[in-house]
Each structure stands twice: as C-alpha cells, then as structure tokens.
Amino acid sequence: MKDFEICFFRHGIALDREDPRVTSDAQRPLTEEGIRKTREAAEGLKRMDAGFEKILTSPWLRASQTASILSEVLFLPEPEEMKELEGDRTPEELVGALPKRLAKRTLLVGHEPLLSAAVIHILGGDWALDLKKSGACALSVDALPPRKPAMLMWHLTSRHLRWIAKG
What we know:
The structure is a single chain. By secondary structure, the protein is α/β, with parallel strands linked by helices. The protein has one domain: Phosphoglycerate mutase-like (Rossmann fold), CATH 3.40.50. 34% of the residues lie in helices and 19% in strands. It contains 5 helices and 6 strands; from the N terminus they run E-H-E-H-E-H-E-H-E-E-H. It has helices at 32-48, 61-74, 91-97, 114-123, 158-166, and strands at 4-10, 54-57, 80-81, 105-110, 136-141, 151-156. Strand 2, helix 2 (61-74) and strand 3 form a beta-alpha-beta unit. The termini are far apart. 40% of the residues are buried.
C-alpha cells in the first residue's frame, strides 16, 4: 500500500484572548487580517496542487473558519469536525483517532502546540517545530502508528504559501 500524506495547517490569526468580545477560547473568530492571509495561503496550497481529498478540522471557531476557507479555495468537500483536533487535546489522542478518518491525502486544521507536537510524535526524535498561523507542513507516512519512519515532505510559513500563490 502506498503512503498517506497528511498536511497539518494551523488556523489563521484570531481575536486576542483578552478581547472583550471573546467569551471562550473555543469561540475566538478569525480577524479580517486572519481571513485575508488564510485565503492567500490557501491559494499557495492550490498552486502547489497537493491533491487533498478531505479536510478534518477542530470544531473551535477559528479552526473551522480556516477549514472553510481552505475547502472553498481548494474545491474540497465540507470539512469534517474532529474533536481530537481541539486545542486542549494531546498528540496521542489525535494520532490515535486519525487512522479511521484518513484519506490518501488529508488536510488537518487545528491549533498549536498540538499540531507541532503531533508531527514530532509521528516523526519521532528530539527536535522542535513551530507552525506559524496559516502555516503548514506535510508528512508522508505508511500507517499510524508508522511501521517505517515517516518523512517530513515540506514545512512552509504563511508568508511562503502567500509567495507561492503570487507565482
């Protein structure tokens, strides 16, 4: 069987936690700048022609808004919510829930530090990764948990993806 490709995409810029309009961390929406930069980063992914088949997203508002933008720009089916992508989950919970939900090329939308921790968990080793807002990285993996070493295919910031979009 061929490997799976999993892309980890961090949500866009959201309202600050201290903003008086914020009632809970889970309900923080994207800002106008966050919407714009996420759309431009999504255009970069589109130009890369990664061929994603499905989007799994945290149900938290900023992530689901990000996933909706990605779905629209990449012409993908509606994102599916996955509670294990919530910002207060562990890498073990996320990786444990993924095998039944993965397509050949799956785009995951969620939060830091969960996404970076999950990437490190899958790849193994002792190193650091910091996904910036509207940034992404992609792994190639044979299974979860991996039977052979997973491979980091690419890691791009929002700025890199927006640059790719401009061609």
